[in-house]
Design a protein that fits this description.
Helicase, Ruva Protein, domain 3; 16 helices; globular
């Protein structure tokens, strides 16, 4: 991104100093709504959600941890979401009903192939006949409702789709990343350790969003009045009064925005103090996820890991000193993950798991560097 901005400056193209796709295509209030529906709070998940809502083609989500699935279920519940699998006998009936009424449809557990009968829906091959918008579904023409939305999810962690499928859908990878999981775990830690801080942050986001909306409506009102005015503007006392009033209101809101944004920055600084715990949690999860390479039987879901992680934070001994509390959390979370996961391992794999945990923690801390690690492996 920095390369693009510097290149724009060289060519004298106007560009924001801190460009953000999230800031351009959505707002904090909408993001908070997504979060309440179960969308993880990390940057990658939010950018994925933007692709889901803005893309012209229907989204196919690679979702091994089923986070996107849970988010879509809750978000589209109010829109009469219908959930179906490709193997279900009533697939065509559900699709036809969704297209006709305008309900959302979620196709779960997609494999590496799609039924050719879905092509017309995926390509949105609608046509107008006698003033009605129709789409060909199987052998029948179905009236197409613009409110209809289609989502597809697959649990496969690394699927291989042929080009003819890729060009029909918007492929979005919802697989959890290290930084993404860190953000999620940080939110969990703050909610349990400093709930008032997280509540205050949510209130500030709502307030900032409301103020920005109010500023926008004031600007729209002024432009509308100026556009509708006739004759000399200076002779129109009502117009001048409205402009003055709008200017004063905008000034108050703008100063309030500066204060709330500064307060939000302070809260973000306070949240970062717990980042160490979130990083350790992320490191542990990816070690646990790697166990499936040793034996396919070792499958531990992210939901289960989160339950262990949150339970430790809730039940461990509290401490007034933050440094002491953080050390307690690091030790207890590591021990709890090792203990819980080891119960499900063969005896011969427990030593391997211990070594993987230690090595990954030491690599994260910088005690083992990449050169040493590669020397050991090779």
């Amino acid at each position: 991104m920095g390369l693009w901005i510097s290149h724009c400056k060289e060519l004298s193209v106007p560009a924001s100093e801190n460009f953000s796709l999230t800031a351009v295509l959505t707002d904090p209030y909408e993001i908070r709504q997504w979060n309440t529906f179960g969308l993880p709070k990390d940057k990658i998940s939010i950018e994925n959600a933007i692709l889901v809502t803005w893309a012209k083609r229907w989204p196919l989500l690679i979702d091994p941890q089923e986070q996107a699935n849970r988010w879509i279920r809750q978000m589209e519940d109010a829109n009469g979401l219908k959930i179906v699998k490709l193997t279900d006998s009533n697939l065509m009936h559900v699709l036809e009903s969704g297209i006709r009424i305008g309900n959302s449809v979620l196709l779960e557990e997609i494999g590496e192939t799609l039924d050719p009968i879905l092509s017309s829906v995926l390509l949105k091959q609608t046509f107008v006949q006698a003033g009605r918008t129709l789409i060909r579904l199987g052998d029948a023409d179905v009236e197409y409702n613009d409110s209809f939305r289609l989502y597809m999810t697959t649990k496969l962690p690394n699927p291989h789709y042929l080009p003819e499928i890729c060009i029909q859908v918007t492929m979005i990878n919802f697989t959890i990343t290290t930084s993404g999981l860190e953000e999620q775990l940080l939110s969990d830690v703050i909610c349990l350790e400093q709930p008032e801080l997280e509540q205050q942050r949510n209130e500030l986001i709502t307030r900032i969003n409301n103020d920005k909306n109010q500023l926008q409506s004031i600007e729209d009102k002024v432009l509308r009045i100026l556009y509708a005015s006739e004759g000399n503007i200076l002779d129109d006392e009502a117009l001048i009064d409205t402009l003055n009033e709008s200017k004063e209101t905008a000034g108050v809101i703008a100063s309030r925005l500066l204060e709330t944004e500064a307060a939000e920055a302070n809260i973000s600084v306070a949240r970062e103090k717990y980042h160490l715990v979130a990083t350790r949690g992320s490191v542990l999860y990816f070690v646990v996820a790697q166990l499936a390479d040793i034996d396919p039987m070792y499958q531990f879901s992210l939901k289960y890991f989160n339950q262990v992680f949150n339970k430790v934070i809730s039940t461990t001994e509290k401490a007034e000193d933050l440094a002491v509390r953080l050390q307690i959390l690091l030790n207890e979370i590591t021990l709890a993950v090792y203990t819980n996961v080891s119960r499900g391992l063969f005896e011969r794999h427990k030593l391997i798991f211990s070594f993987m945990l230690c090595a990954r923690i030491y690599k994260e801390a910088g005690i083992i560097n990449e050169l040493q690690w590669n020397f050991l492996l090779r």
